[in-house]
Structures are given as C-alpha cells and as structure tokens.
Design brief:
Layout: H1 4-7, H2 16-27, H3 69-105, H4 111-160, E1 172-173, E2 176-177
Antiparallel strand pairs: 1-2
C-alpha cells in the first residue's frame, strides 16, 4: 500500500533561484561566492534563518559561502542531458521532414510538383523539429535529466553525510530537516 509521502509531488533538487545562480556561474556571469543553504545550496539572504527551498534551519546546517564543485558538475550534466534529448528529438523531426520530402519527390516528375515538394521540405522539417524537439523532446529531456539528477543528488548526499541515503532536500529525519 503506497504511503501518503509517495503520492506527494516530488520537489526539485535545485531551487529555481539556485538554478538561475548556477546558470550564471557556468556562463561566467556570477562568482561562486555568497551565502548558500548548507543543505540544498539555495542562495540565502543574510537575514534568513531558514531555507525557503528545503526548510533547513541555519542553526542545524550552517550556511556555506560557496556551492561545492560537485553540485556545479551535477548542474552542467543536467543541462547537457536535457540538451542531448531535445536536440535528438529535433533531429528526428528534421529526418521526418526529409523523409516526407523524398517520399513526395517520387510521386511526380512535374516541375511545379518539385517546387511544392521543396516548400513542403522546408515547412515540414521546421514544423516536425519544433513539435518533436520543442514540445515532446523538451518534456522527455526535462524528466529524464531530473530523474538522473535526483539519483546523483542522493549519491552526493551519501558521500557528504553518511546515513542520508534516499533522503531528498526538504525531507525530515528524526526531527531534523535534511
């Protein structure tokens, strides 16, 4: 019988704010300095005593002044995985457009038909790439990359603090937020 916790929506590993900061860091637009939650590394304002993402109290987990290199590497891998899946779906769309073009090219030898077929090639390839890459690929890539990130985060949490295996940011264990 499933527990109530398993029915709850899964919280993202990285907070939206940490996502923004990490994106700026890997572009070289922001330094890896500041005040970050000691549990999930979400940026914290100086007056914050509790993380808005994982609810960890700064008294339980002191804030850190840098995001660990392992977390930055996880973020890079997340973005790379998303990109690979989205681009793969987009290229599949382009392939389908070209296949449609070649199929229609064999239908008639008339010049007007070849011109229409070239127009169909351009429009269909763009349309299929947008639908498959931007629509379907985006969703599949996001889910795939986030599942992998969750597994990597659990492994990181285990090495960071033995005994935290299978706990996600924001979950409580013996009265303390992990």
């Amino acid at each position: 019988m499933p527990t109530q916790a398993s029915n709850a929506p899964e919280a993202p590993v990285f907070s939206p704010r940490l996502d923004e900061v990490l994106a700026e860091m890997i572009k070289g637009q922001a330094p890896n300095r500041g005040r970050f939650c000691g549990n999930c590394y979400t940026p914290l304002a100086e007056e914050r005593r509790m993380c808005p993402h994982c609810s960890a109290a700064t008294s339980d987990r002191p804030p850190v002044d840098r995001v660990p290199a392992e977390v930055i590497a996880m973020f890079r891998a997340l973005r790379r995985r998303e990109s690979i899946v989205v681009n793969s779906f987009a290229f599949l769309g382009l392939f389908l457009g070209v296949a449609l073009f070649l199929g229609l090219f064999l239908v008639s030898d008339a010049l007007w038909w070849r011109i229409v077929d070239i127009i169909i090639l351009v429009v269909a390839s763009r349309l299929f790439a947008a639908i498959l890459g931007g629509g379907l690929g985006d969703e599949v890539g996001y889910r795939f990359a986030r599942r992998r990130l969750a597994r990597e985060w659990r492994a990181f949490a285990e090495t960071r603090e033995p005994g935290t295996r299978n706990r996600k940011p924001g979950t409580k264990d013996q009265g303390r937020v992990v």
